[in-house]
Design brief:
By secondary structure, this protein is of the alpha/beta class. The protein has ten helices and six strands. Among the domains are: 37 residues, no CATH class; 65 residues, no CATH class. 29% of the residues lie in helices and 8% in strands. A two-stranded antiparallel sheet has the order 1-2. The protein has a two-stranded parallel ribbon with strand order 3-4. The protein is flat. This is Aminoacyl-tRNA synthetase class Ia domain-containing protein. GO terms for molecular function: aminoacyl-tRNA deacylase activity; ATP binding; isoleucine-tRNA ligase activity.
Length: 289
């Protein structure tokens, strides 16, 4: 230990950025940092964490452009050695290499990190430019005054709200009177697309955007899990008809067995299982015919 100092001294101190020697940065106090874990000093990245962002605003730190682009790569504004590198893989290794001469001590540390529920991949939290609507009491009247009477409009690429945008699809794709014969989707859309479409249509036209709903179930694997690309449990139809590389493990059931499975498990709301024992039963039924 070279020196002992209180937090009040550190709060008024600055340090030099290890990669940008002409950049002087401030030590910031934060009530989310504790002494019972780690050193009491943590790296702060206002563009990549809500607490860090709030703390930076509290102390008057101006927000700079995010150094990570929408593809999860270091942006063109970064150092040449980092530009275009994936942040969580090659980019992380490159940063470690650049900081090698500035590291006092290294060690392993287990901590929590956010993962995407669908892809099961780590999530990069990053700041982005956004716009907000101030919903004052007189917003309704102001909105009416702002309606363009005669103007050429260009469809924008921004998403206001995923359910509002998709819930208005009937207005964009259906001819007058904007009512489809049937809306077809999974059972989970009762509180999703079906509902958002119904609410927007009733509010604007007084009627539903569809005459009928058809809700199908989901294909389940042998363990009863919904098949999805993120779980990697999707079965290719050709795997059923032609089999896999190891025919003992993944036998070929043929086209007729697949057809029988489809016909036998036609569903209007129930989930449909597909597994070897289910296909074997279908094979027995085909053989009897």
């Amino acid at each position: 230990m070279l020196i002992t100092s209180g937090s009040d001294i550190l709060s008024d101190s600055t340090y030099t950025h290890p990669l940008y020697r002409d950049k002087e940065l401030r030590f910031l106090p934060g009530d989310f940092v504790t002494m019972d874990k780690g050193t009491g000093l943590v790296h702060s990245a206002p563009s990549h964490g809500f607490e860090d962002y709030q703390n930076a605003l509290k102390h008057g730190i101006a927000m700079e452009d995010c150094l990570v682009d929408e593809e999860g790569r270091f942006a063109s504004s970064c150092r040449l050695e980092l530009r275009g590198l994936p942040v969580l893989t090659e980019g992380s290794d490159a940063v470690t290499k650049l900081l090698a001469n500035h590291v006092v001590r290294t060690g392993s540390y287990t901590h929590s990190y956010p993962y995407d529920w669908r892809s099961k991949q780590p999530v990069i939290v990053r700041s982005s430019r956004q716009w907000f609507i101030n919903l004052d009491d007189d917003m309704r009247q102001r909105a009416l005054l702002g309606v363009c009477k005669d103007a050429a409009l260009t469809r924008g690429q921004d998403i206001m709200d995923i359910w509002l945008d998709s819930g208005l699809s009937w207005k964009m794709v259906l001819p007058e009177p904007c009512q489809a014969d049937v809306y077809l989707e999974g059972l989970d859309q009762v509180r999703g697309w079906f509902q958002s479409s119904l609410l927007t249509s009733v509010a604007l036209t007084g009627k539903a955007p569809y005459r009928k709903l058809y809700m199908h179930g989901f294909t389940l694997d042998a363990e009863g899990r919904k098949m999805s690309k993120s779980l990697g449990n999707v079965i290719d139809p050709e795997m059923i008809t032609k089999g896999g590389k190891d025919l003992k493990k993944d036998p070929a059931f043929g086209v007729d067995v697949l057809r029988w499975w489809v016909a036998a498990h036609t569903s209007n709301h129930e989930n449909v299982p597909v597994a070897k024992h289910v296909l074997a039963e279908c094979q027995e039924n085909v053989a009897k015919v």
